[in-house]
Amino acid sequence: ISICRDLPNIEVITFSVNGISDLEPLHQCQNLSELYLRRNNITSLDELFYLKTLPRLRVLWLAENPCCGPDPHRYRMTVLRNLPSLQRLDNQAVTEEELSQALVDGVEITAPPARRSLESAWSESTASSAAGSATERESELSCSLQDTNKTQEEFDMKRVPRDKYSSFSPQETDCSCKKTNNVLNAILLLMKELDAEGLEIIQQTVARRLQAFQKKELQEE
């Protein structure tokens, strides 16, 4: 996430399922409008302090982080009190009634979070990762494949077969598939922003890459 310090003009960020715990690098992304942070390691809602300076932020997905706590209402009210410009929170539309109620039930955040030592945070993160079950990894893989296939359907592309990664172990499958799907999703979404000239350049580049792969396969045979 530290790379965001060098991307002040970025508008959409997807960092779901990445073990992120610190949102400080985002506070200079003044053009950020959508931020997806589902299922990370954000332990305190005080991290919202760094998002309060983002005037264009309209969509935030923060669910499945430790900071959400046991009280969904208090969590949502606190987020909306500090980020009243949000239009969607955790994939749910924000209403005027909620914004009014947030002034009563939400907690205002006026200071950045106190930082623990890097060693302590790293130890907890490592322990948390080690405790993850194969079932959870398999579920995340399924979700990633579904997201990619949904994007591909918009382009009438062939769906990603689930057995493509069947020869790997669960951990290898999770890492390999997630990386491939994230890259593929990013490319497909960015293609929507291109005009005819840009798409032609993409087509030519893909053709050259395919030729290179085919040549390599022939040489290996």
From TrEMBL:
<feature type="region of interest" description="Disordered">
    <location>
        <begin position="118"/>
        <end position="172"/>
    </location>
</feature>
<comment type="function">
    <text>Plays a role in cilia formation and/or maintenance. Plays a role in the regulation of cell morphology and cytoskeletal organization. Involved in DNA damage repair.</text>
</comment>
<dbReference type="InterPro" id="IPR001611">
    <property type="entry name" value="Leu-rich_rpt"/>
</dbReference>
<dbReference type="InterPro" id="IPR025875">
    <property type="entry name" value="Leu-rich_rpt_4"/>
</dbReference>
<dbReference type="GO" id="GO:0097733">
    <property type="term" value="C:photoreceptor cell cilium"/>
</dbReference>
<feature type="compositionally biased region" description="Low complexity">
    <location>
        <begin position="119"/>
        <end position="134"/>
    </location>
</feature>
<dbReference type="InterPro" id="IPR032675">
    <property type="entry name" value="LRR_dom_sf"/>
</dbReference>
<dbReference type="GO" id="GO:0007010">
    <property type="term" value="P:cytoskeleton organization"/>
</dbReference>
<keyword id="KW-0677">Repeat</keyword>
<comment type="subunit">
    <text>Found in a complex with CFAP410, NEK1 and SPATA7. Interacts with NEK1.</text>
</comment>
<dbReference type="GO" id="GO:0036064">
    <property type="term" value="C:ciliary basal body"/>
</dbReference>
<dbReference type="InterPro" id="IPR003603">
    <property type="entry name" value="U2A'_phosphoprotein32A_C"/>
</dbReference>
<keyword id="KW-0433">Leucine-rich repeat</keyword>
<dbReference type="Pfam" id="PF12799">
    <property type="entry name" value="LRR_4"/>
</dbReference>
<feature type="domain" description="U2A'/phosphoprotein 32 family A C-terminal">
    <location>
        <begin position="72"/>
        <end position="90"/>
    </location>
</feature>
<feature type="compositionally biased region" description="Basic and acidic residues">
    <location>
        <begin position="150"/>
        <end position="165"/>
    </location>
</feature>
<protein>
    <recommendedName>
        <fullName>Cilia- and flagella-associated protein 410</fullName>
    </recommendedName>
</protein>
